Amino acid sequence: MTILHIDSSARTQGSVTRDLSARIVAKLGGNVIRRDLSEALPQITETWVNANFTPADDRDPAQRDTLALSDTLVQELQAADTIVIGAPVYNFGIPAALKAWIDLVARAGLTFKYSEAGPVGLLNGKRAIIAVATGGTPVGSEVDFATDYLKHVLGFIGIHEVEIIAADRVMAQGEEAINDARAEIEKLAA
């Protein structure tokens, strides 16, 4: 099994989601592709959009260079059987770095396609496990804009088997919330 391990917390030390995602990866075992988003990814620009919408065979060297990182990120997704994402909730949503990653991997013709019935995800047969931590936002509540968004985006690109391991309301529940999430990890099947 190949695991794509993505961490999106800006905190490289003391991060609950980094701890949880590392535990998930260790529990599952396998070959690991590591992607740390603590150093922000570039935002989508007009140059990127124009390169992306140019047919692959017609792209000039500058356009290929513009899409090189995005191509690498897509290849990492394509190579993975399981995607493990550490996703803290910042201000009710996902970190900007994780949103930038999504923008770079949601690519028509590579991770989804358009059909008469609408968009169709191309990354079928993969599993995603999202380690979420929040300070005060209850996961799954009407003010949690992170987990449903991530499930939707992953489903859009064809990943429908999505599990959430949550340490929510850490500021209110403290270590108990973290320990509950760690216990859920121990129940995961490889």
From TrEMBL:
Binding site for FMN: 9
Catalysed reactions, as listed in the record: N,N-dimethyl-1,4-phenylenediamine + anthranilate + 2 NAD(+) = 2-(4-dimethylaminophenyl)diazenylbenzoate + 2 NADH + 2 H(+); 2 a quinone + NADH + H(+) = 2 a 1,4-benzosemiquinone + NAD(+)
Pfam families named in the record: Flavodoxin_2
EC category: oxidoreductase
Cofactor note: Binds 1 FMN per subunit.
Domain Flavodoxin-like fold residue range list: 1-187
Quaternary organization: Homodimer.
Name this polypeptide is given: FMN dependent NADH:quinone oxidoreductase
